[in-house]
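Encode chain A's predicted structure.
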Amino acid sequence: MPMDNDFHFPTADADPRDICKALGLFATGVTIVTTRTGAGESIGLTCNSFSSVSLSPPLVLWSLSLRSPNLPNFLQATHFAVNVLAHDQIDLAKRFAQPIANKFEGVKQVSGAHGMPLIEHVGAQFECRTEARHYSGDHVIFIGNVLQYRFSERAPLLFFRGRYAAVQENS
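Encoded structure for chain A:
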């Protein structure tokens, strides 16, 4: 099979931005992962590393940078929630991606069965018990056992080539 001429092959001195460009071609969904601090404060962050791991038992994963100021809170948390954003929630995604003091100010939320902050009107939600944490590279991978979930028929928000995008459904 012939190779395209525009493929890049990494070398020892490759520019790390190149791998970011390549990874950016994989469209992902956009989520807000939430938990509570030891003092009970709601915290959350925008995340596009969410993925299914297993159906039996139901397990999901997401990852967080070792440099994140939120890392200590998620490391101590026994539970977390994943709020899958809908196509019209770009502003919410941008808000939770910023280092602002109270990301939840003005955001409609409820407490889930295990006390985790659940953002209202998202596409889907997964309430999880932290099953495992794995350190790999410059991130921690969190695996959660899905205890409860809910979903709607809302189209998802996507992230592609460094930008938010919406699904274009074919008829």
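The helical segments are 16-23, 71-76, 90-97.
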